[in-house]
Amino acid sequence: MASLVLAAAGAAGELATLSPAAAQLAAYLAVDTTNPPGNERAGAVLLAGMLRAAGIEPQLFVSPLGRVSLCARLPASTGSVASVAGTRKPGAIVLLHHIDVVPAGDGWRHPPFAGEVHDGELWGRGAIDTKGLGIAHLAAFLDAARSPLPRRRELVFLAVADEEAGGGEGVGWLLAAHPELFENIDAVLNEGGVNKSVSGRMLYWGIEVAQKRPLWLEVRAAGRPGHASAANPESATHRLVAGLARLVAAPRPPRLTPEGRDFLTALARLDPQARTVLEEVEALTGDGDPAARPLALPGFESLLTDTVQITTLTGSDRINVVAGEARAGIDIRLLPDTDATAFVAALEQLLGPGLEVSVRLSSAAAPASSTSSAIYQTIATTLAPGTSIPPVPVVPAFIPAFTDARSFRARGIAAYGFSPFALDALELRTVHAPDERISLATLDKGVETMTRVVRALVFPTPGAQ
Hints:
Elements: E1 4-7, E2 15-18, H1 20-29, H2 40-53, E3 59-62, E4 68-74, E5 92-98, E6 117-118, E7 121-123, H3 131-146, E8 155-160, H4 171-177, E9 185-190, E10 196-198, E11 201-211, E12 213-222, E13 226-227, H5 236-249, H6 258-268, H7 272-283, E14 307-314, E15 321-322, E16 325-334, H8 340-351, E17 355-362, H9 374-383, E18 394-399, H10 405-409, E19 414-417, H11 425-428, E20 437-439, H12 440-458
Parallel strand pairs: 5-8, 5-9, 9-19, 11-18
Antiparallel strand pairs: 1-2, 3-4, 4-8, 6-7, 7-20, 10-11, 12-16, 12-17, 13-15, 14-16
């Protein structure tokens, strides 16, 4: 792979030798696409320029609110797949990532929107979530475009807006307004993979096949406004806080869904802690009181409960003024089989009378993507045999977060969360936190891995890998 030399404004003005992919990611990270407002157009224009430089003309799609997504396509090669009566031509593979990022916040050691290299690491909001993945997708896409080998299926590069706010102006809008983009799709490769690595050594690859569902609520309380010096126990803020305290205190016993069982069963063969969690949760009976039996669930609680997080609180903007209204934002992640309507009704009972609950985001239940599909099996066999000795295991993962994959699964399109990067725990902790970054070595190795996987999916023979 050819190299570029780029001046990186490090503490000592260091010069970093960057691969083409790293140079592209540095430029991408320098574009501030914080959502809100998103400004995905600037990111899409940058990606479009990279595609056009390779002779590929992308399409830009603009939602009614002005949010921009990008799509580029490589058609299947003419005559690359023999026509057999009664057989279906292979569908397309979509490489999906989102352009928008969450706000950088305070506390960064290096600028979050500069794309700087420091000590062999590329810094910036989105380095992992998900501009780094997008550049790995782009590299694999361009590799497929350059290859003289026939493509047995169409390959689609898709960069979307608004994922961090629920995807309504990105994937949600595209599926509704441009369904033609997603005809004859075999699978979507997206974020959400949960690999485990230590010191750059991969312990297992986790391909996400199922996830929890978002339920974002706003709770509103009204009360008598006035001066804070006067007794006012029924103020809006007091009513809200009392209701939220009851909600937080409510027990949420763990339960094992089929998705959680599949993931923990696969992990139990590799991780003693996962084996212990699986054994303890399976030992719970309907006659016992799970709350009375402490379980060793660190790191796994979110896979076994409907989580409730109070994330925003608003009331008066003056300490000596009682507001007439107070509001709270609640981020709930539901297990796949939880009834959302029943959950909201139970939550309203806990909050008590006088509090108004509004749903800001919800998602319908969607089936897990198959682990027996040709797509999943191709990814798994490409990652495992021959890539290391001994081979690195591949497990079907269930994640507590949600991604745009849910929108495809709800429409019967398989979606797999796959990260090609061997990220350690320290790097992963920077996602949605200060100091997000990825090492140059990890990025370049991940680009190689993604390219190998895409080749296996798109080209017709094992020899093309």
